[in-house]
Predict the 3D structure of the following.
Amino acid sequence: MVALAREARARARAPYSRFRVGAALKTRGGEIVTGCNIENASYGLSMCAERVAVFKAVSEGLSDFVAIAVVTGSGRPTPPCGPCRQILWELCGDIAVHMATVRGRSLTVRLSRLLPLPFDEKSL
Ligand code: THU
């Protein structure tokens, strides 16, 4: 997964932040869907790698996700941003989140640790 996320990172379009991110989302059946961040001159329209991966996967009819890998060039493993945590929680549930750097540092936590006390359909 980390290798595929790293390949996806190479396709990132990040001319404004220069912060390239790759993601790889895995289903229980072993299918893997990747994503990269895609920025826009209208900055707020930019999309994170994690959401690109999950929206691609859901739009292809996939479900039952077990893990996501996120690769950045940062000095330390980078956790998903707040909006990505929310989307991942609602569409993937309590998956494993593998965070890795291109230099080989990594950290794995469950999403529930990154998003305690979530707002979701149970709240409605
Ligand atoms: N970014 C991601 O792709 N995933 C995250 O979880 C955090 C941020 C992207 C968005 C933007 O293109 C760049 O990283 C800098 O914030």
